[in-house]
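Exam revision sheet. Question 4 asks you to relate a sequence to its structure. Input first:
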Amino acid sequence: MTTSTSPSTLAVRAESLVKVFGDNRAVDGVDLAVDAGTVYGVLGPNGAGKTTTINMLATLMRPDAGRAEIFGHDVSREPNVVRQLIGVTGQFASVDETLSATENLMIFGRLLGLTCNEAKRKAGDLLERFSLTDAARRPLKKFSGGMRRRLDLAASLLAQPPLIFLDEPTTGLDPRTRGQMWDTIRELVATGSTVLLTTQYLDEADQLADRIAVIDHGRVVAEGTADDLKASVGTSSLILRMSDPADVDDALRAIAQVLGVRGTLSPEAARITAPMSDPDRVTDLLITLREAGIHLTEMSVQKPTLDEVFLTITGRPADAAATDSASADAASEEVRA
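Answer key, structure tokens:
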């Protein structure tokens, strides 16, 4: 069956998705709306429900309640159509360690219905794209973790799907390899793909995602752009350092008078931090300080970080120790649609 997509179409729409494992509501009413041609980040700690949500959207699990559509096709009623539109890369590489990179990709290609020649050609193209050509004939058991993850991502692109699910694709990778994966994700979107990315890494979501959903205990607890989320937890901070420590008291009075806030003196000498609720007033403050003969050696603005967002919203860091093993085990036993 042939399906088509439009740039104006939502790539993913989920409404009140629920998945229950025994007494555990792993996903508890998740709503998502992902625009085509974007990177959408799903951020949360282990056990938050990220992987279970991906599994339902990718037709690997049936929702217990709610509904989801991929480019307008229902994941429960039209699973075969949905599978033509998606590629999935999980937390663990789904490749055969005893085979070479080329052999793995050719097998995946043949399973997707490609002819032998088509599978061979696409395998070669993808190995080159992911800088694996030199290792094409090497058994995967000799690959590094980063090389395996790149090969797994390459396998998910064999059918050139318009939507790609990446479930924590950089977990366990070194910084250099993570950076390479980030570049690949940007390239995918630049060529028209949509990427739904789950991650525990706050910097990854900040760098890559056009919009971010924060999931905790199976629920979406916040959603928006990275800047929206940062703004929601507080204002930016103004940092000033005096060239003369004797000017600190006068500077604190000027901050209170002009900005209407109380500055905080840092343990470091002559360094003041103050909340900046109105950026337009900073110019007035600088004029007041100059007229008072107070000279600065530093002035900077510190915005809230996604770390602060996550801590404020959930009360715990994004890498909080928990496991999603119950849902992972259930996924392997679930009867596919």
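Marking note for examiners. Residues 236-303 form a domain with the Alpha-Beta Plaits fold (CATH 3.30.70.2030).
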